[in-house]
Amino acid sequence: MSMIPLSRKPGELVQREPRPSVWAKKMSEVKQNKHMYVMIAPYFMIFFIFTVLPVFLSLTVSFTNFNMLEFPDWVGWQNYARLFIRDDIFLLAVKNTIYFAAITGPISYIVCFVLAWVINELSPKVRAVATLIFYAPVLSGNAFIVWTLLFSGDSYGYINAFLLKFRLIAEPILWLKDPQYIMAIIIIVQLWLSLGTSFLAFIAGLQSMDKTLFEAGAIDGIRNRWQELWFITLPAMRPQLMFGAVIQITSSFAVAEVATTLAGFPSVQYAGHTIVTHLMDYGNIRFEMGYASSIATVLFGIMLGSNLLVQKLLKKVGE
Amino acid sequence: MGAAAKLLRGNKINRSRAGDLLLFLFLAALGYFMALPLVFVISNAFKPINEILQFPPKFLVRNPSLNNFTDLYNLMSGTWVPFTRYMFNTFFIAFVGTAGHVIIASLAAYPLAKRKFPGVSVLFTIVVLSLMFSGTVTQVTNYMTMSWFGMIDTYWAVIIPAIGSSLGLYLMKQFMEQIPDALLEAAQIDGCSEYRIFWRIVMPVVKPAWLTLIIFSFQGLWGAGGAAGSMYIYSEQLKTIDYALGQILAGGIIRTGPSMAATLLMISVPIIIFVITQSNVLQTMSTSGMKD
Fold it and tell me: What is the dihedral of CA B159, A204, B126, A37, to 10 degrees?
């Protein structure tokens, strides 16, 4: 600033204002848009308090010993050491969760897409009915409780009655009490509940596709529906496929309600124990908030990490 | 064959009959698996008691009766907390939560979709990242936050987090992006304030999107007594219908009929809403894709 006046003729008025700093410019933009901030404020206040803040809070609390009554003690990495070295049940829960996710994640994702694609082949009226039938389990929420009747351990259980009738088994199987079957049953029920948001997103994406792409493809020598799927449909559906992947991955790591409802809490020999049920055990029953927070932080890392990894992979498709 | 094929697949090019058959079989098998448990609910809701106790059990009802519904009514009148209270709790949580979510999320989605101001892209990135972890991650710390706010054991423990759900905001924002800018500019030139533009122009145009938010939010909250409710709500008089249903079902095989009748009544509400809004929901989901 002090250098400018050297070239100034005496008596000339300084018309130029000092250049606004980047910060001042931002502030004036903020002021101009104050209505915008007012509009987003209610949502983002709730969102930050109940979704963003908890992530950081749980990261902090995970380094402490906290029981909600006394002031938390700082314990450093102790909770994590306990998790990965001394807590065998946690390691079992991690194993179960990864096993669930590795099966239900990809299967449900592929089924969602294939089914949406098949349904899209139908005429609009049949399509609407088919969509309803496949989406109904998700809509009916807690109705998955009927699976407990189907897999009931006595001979009144429908699966048992059916197998007994055809003499496939000699005596009723305790489906939900036998560690050998618990995992498989939870996977089946979870798959039954998995045609949700991403399924609808895929149907919608397929319906809104540009029809001229297919006609152009036919002229370019596409012979059948499989080629059409591979060369035209999949690349055009990439945004929906990425959205669907996020939804399916996140829900496949969050298995808990189905597991506790069907197999009990805790399940026999922890056969249906997942990271989330372990979290509920320490957070909602034992109130060891520090330890529970370290479980939550690990779960957060697994969910976000696998999502970002899959996003990266999907971005490569068709490049 | 021609007419049937047309009914099944509409007008599409490059389709072979063998492929049609294969896909139809796939669809039928999967449809059977998906529909079976719900057919079971419907069938058992109308079974008279002797058919429920019959051995070996039959899957489908022979002589349908409405006894289960009257039994359910009698069971409900005998509960310690009047059943109407459970109903009120469920309705209150579902309606207030859904209405709050639709209004507040739409209000926030409009600036994110249509206006440029400092912070907008960072905020939306955080919302997308939040789709990548579930509410189970935050439930422990939310319990602490809620107890500081005095929200534990109130309806608000379930309602407020549902209002801030990120999926609704994400879908609404993606849908609003396709509103033509010319429409908004015209309104601005006419001297409309941003709030007026939002209520009078944006909201009517995005009707499919808010119908979608309604069905998603409602379906989550309608059954939410189960997951979120059992965690944050202890008082018997604040519990929801599905908690009461769990109690009925706990009575063993003899209660199967009434509990299936109750389940049927419960699930029919979101299913009816979806049937009415289906085409709107699909319209909204077509803009749900994630751009790079």
Answer: -70
What is the C-alpha R_g of chain B? 24
Cis upstream peptide for A54 (omega within 30°): no
- The pLDDT, as a whole number, for residue A1 is 44
Map tokens 């919302």 to a residue. Answer: B127
B-contacting residues in A 247-266 (Cβ below 8 Å)? 247, 249-251, 253-254, 256-257
Find chain A residues with C-beta within 8 A of B144's C-beta: 57, 61, 68, 289
Residue ranges of domains in chain A, CATH in brackets: 19-61 (no CATH), 78-316 (1.10.3720.10)
Spell out, as residue ranges, where chain B has pLDDT lower than 70.
1-14, 224-229, 292
- List the beta bridge partners of residue A64: A74
Bridge partners, B137 (sequence order) = none
Contact B267, A139 (CB under 8 A): yes
Handedness of CA A246, A252, A258, A260 (dihedral sign): negative
Six token digits for residue A68: 């909600």
Q: Hey, is the C-beta of B18 within 8 angstroms of any chain A C-beta? A: no
pLDDT of residue B84: 83
ipTM, 2 decimals? Answer: 0.88
Beta bridge partners of A73: A65
Residue A16's pLDDT is what?
A: 60
- Put simply, the answer to whether B27 touches A115 (Cβ < 8 Å) is yes
**What pLDDT sits at residue A12?**
54
Tell me the three state secondary structure of residue A140.
coil
| Contact in structure between A118 and B23 (CB atoms under 8 Å) | yes
Nearest 5°: phi and psi at B172?
Answer: -65, -45
Give the C-alpha separation, A295 to A314, whole Å: 29
pLDDT value for A188? 92
pLDDT digits (tens, 9 = 90+) for A177-205: 888 888 899 999 999 999 989 999 999 99
User: Residue A278's closest chain B neighbor by CA?
Assistant: B136
On whether the pTM is more than 0.90, the answer is: no
Give the fold, CATH level 3, of B76-285: MetI-like fold (1.10.3720)
* pLDDT the model gives residue A108: 93
Q: Do B27 and A251 touch (CB under 8 A)?
A: no
